[in-house]
Write a structure and sequence with these properties.
By secondary structure, the chain is an alpha+beta fold. The strands form two sheets. The chain has a five-stranded mixed β-sheet with strand order 2-1-5-3-4, sandwiched between helices. Strands 6-7 form a two-stranded antiparallel ribbon. Strand 6 and strand 7 form a beta hairpin. The longest helix is centred in the middle third of the chain and has 16 residues. About 25% of the residues are buried. The mean pLDDT is about 95.
Amino acid sequence: MNNPLTVYIDGIEVQVPEGTTILSAATKAGRYIPTLCYHPDLKPTSNCGICVVEFENAPGTKRACSTPVSNGMRVITNSKKLRELRKSLLEMTLSNHDVNCPTCDQNNKCELQKLAYLFDVDPDRLPKVLDKKPLDLQSFSIVRDPNKCISCGRCLIVCQEVQTVNALTTDGRCFHKTITTPFDKGMLESPCVNCGQCTVY
């Protein structure tokens, strides 16, 4: 390791190469940082904000999945403030989500569901803002349910940058941003090749 950086994750000293993210440094230190939009095989999208951390020697919070460490950085991964912030972010996500876990195919294997349990989130605490849309049943192999989408961006990255198919795109901004097909015409009229990678990630 050439010129390693020394960082402290909840007081645990670790040495990592330059360019290492806080999330990777925390993993090396054996500290858990919850994530939702992050996938180790894809570049970070920084969309969900669940991985936010604090610092002993600097104000504010940053997203651990995409923030590189600096020498001497002292990271706090778990505090009352962070737990409350993560819980609020999960509540906002669920307010724009079709929460019907018992009948969902992903029940008991859903990352969002696991985090909601972990942070004791009440999915009904915030008013629902979900504008329900019909299922996209056009594809020969993929059922696209826009009401379950949390705009993490993982399907988008794998479709555009790994498979280079560009069957998916974004529409809208901020809280109203959705992932859809070009011109929102459905999977059958998109360049989709039915590879299924969007469903894997």
